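Extended Data, panel c. Modelled sequence:
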Amino acid sequence: MVFLDAAQEKFWVHGPTLISVNGGRMYDNNSSLFVAISLDSESQILPLAFSIFPQENKENWKTFLSFVLTAGYDNDQRPGEPFLEGGPFLLSIISDRQKGLLPAINELLIVDFTIKHYYCTQHLASNVKEKFGTAIEKLFRRAYQVSTK
């Protein structure tokens, strides 16, 4: 697994609130590439980590996410925001519906982290369009942009 040193420093200095993860099959050797990205303090894409696993499954996702969330993390030098005073670090993970990812997130037990998972609306919209057509996809896109219940 690789966690880019410069990205690692930027990632922990400002305290991440969102990580996007994805996995994809590599056809040349039938393995899977896992990637994690975030945004820096200037809203620029920050590639965090990548790794190659034999397959996409819960155990491999747990290994990858544990690595991303603990590499370079120093509990004694926690950033001030968005950590809560003496409380958990709030982190959102966004993804499409990767094999084994949601069970892996639910089983992650990393000290100082409260993790919430969200699905990528772009991927959901593509699935809606494929199954129900363009008209319904447009309604779906309008619905997910509503800011109230």
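Residues 58-70 form the longest helix (13 residues). This feature is highlighted in the accompanying rendering.
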